Amino acid sequence: MPLPDRMYCSQQINIPPELPDILKQFTKAAIRTQPPDVLQWSAAYFTALSEGQPLPVKERLEISAERQKTDHTLTPGLLKVLHKQLSSKENVGREELEQKWKGLCLPAEQLDTLLALGNFSTQVHWMHFFALACSALGGTIISALKVACEILSEDPEGAAARISFNTFISLYTYLTQLDGDIPQDEIDRFLFSLQEAVTRRGGMVQPADFTDLDV
C-alpha cells in the first residue's frame, strides 16, 4: 500500500486555543439542558454563540429532565431561557419566537396553542406571552403568578422570589382579562389585599403574599 504524499505529526496540527473551552462549555450546557434532539439544539446553541446572543441553556438540570426525554414540553427552566433570549424587546416577531422555541426542541403544537389563546398575530407582546406560558405551567392564575415570580426574581434560588409589584399587576391583569370571568371588584380587592406587604417591601411582592388568597 503506497504511503500518502504527505505525512502529518502532532506538531503540524493547529488546534485553535479556544476550542477546548468552547467544547467544554458546550458539553456542560447540553448536560444541564438535556435536549431531546441534540443536533437541533446544537445548531441553535452555536448560532446564538456566534451572534453573541443569550444561549439556549438552562441554568441547572431540572428534576423533571428524565421525564422530558420522552415528553418534552415547556418547563420553568426552559421558559426562563426563552425569557432571557426574548425579553429585551416589548414585542417579538412571531418568526423569531418560533425559531427560539424550536431551538429548545419544544413541541410546535404547544406554541400554536399559546399563540391562539393570546390571539397573537405577526408580533407577540412578550410579557403577555410569558404570562400565558406561566399559566400553562401553573394551571391557575395564582399558580401562574407564583411561577412568574420564581422565573423573574433576582433573588437567589430558594429565597423569597420577589418581583416588582408593577410587573405583578401587569401579569395578573392580563391573565384576569383573558379569563374574562373574574369581576372587577374582585380583582381590585385582591390587589388591595397585597398593598400592605408590598409597601413594607418597597414595592416588591413575593409568592408568600398571595398564594393563600383567592383570585
From TrEMBL:
<keyword id="KW-0282">Flagellum</keyword>
<keyword id="KW-0966">Cell projection</keyword>
<comment type="similarity">
    <text>Belongs to the ropporin family.</text>
</comment>
<protein>
    <recommendedName>
        <fullName>Ropporin-1-like protein</fullName>
    </recommendedName>
</protein>
<dbReference type="InterPro" id="IPR047844">
    <property type="entry name" value="ROP_DD"/>
</dbReference>
<dbReference type="GO" id="GO:0031514">
    <property type="term" value="C:motile cilium"/>
</dbReference>
<keyword id="KW-0969">Cilium</keyword>
